């Protein structure tokens, strides 16, 4: 990994850790796959920290530009899946 995660300096240390965990979960879905509920748990926590759709889009677009991984497509696929499903991006 040769990129940094998008963060806000307004967040607490724990919020920064939780946002990074969400972006790491997106990476894991691309690289190995992940159980849907584990991914959605990380996403729900991310949304508690970043409730605004426009801020979410800004952070996710920044992450996509630096990493090449689309959190939008990962979450879209996870929302279409059922609990217990394994999510993996092709």
Automatic annotation (TrEMBL):
UniProt xrefs under SUPFAM superfamilies: BH2638-like
Similarity section: Belongs to the UPF0223 family.
Protein known as: UPF0223 protein HNR31_000910
Organism: Thermaerobacillus caldiproteolyticus
């Amino acid at each position: 990994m040769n990129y940094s995660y998008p963060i806000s300096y307004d967040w607490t240390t724990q919020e920064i850790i939780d946002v990074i965990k969400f972006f790491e979960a997106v990476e894991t879905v691309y690289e190995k796959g992940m159980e849907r509920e584990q991914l959605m748990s990380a996403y729900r926590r991310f949304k508690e920290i970043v409730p605004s759709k426009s801020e979410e889009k800004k952070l996710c677009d920044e992450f996509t530009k630096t990493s090449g991984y689309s959190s939008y497509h990962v979450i879209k696929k996870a929302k279409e899946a059922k609990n217990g499903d394994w999510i993996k991006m092709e």
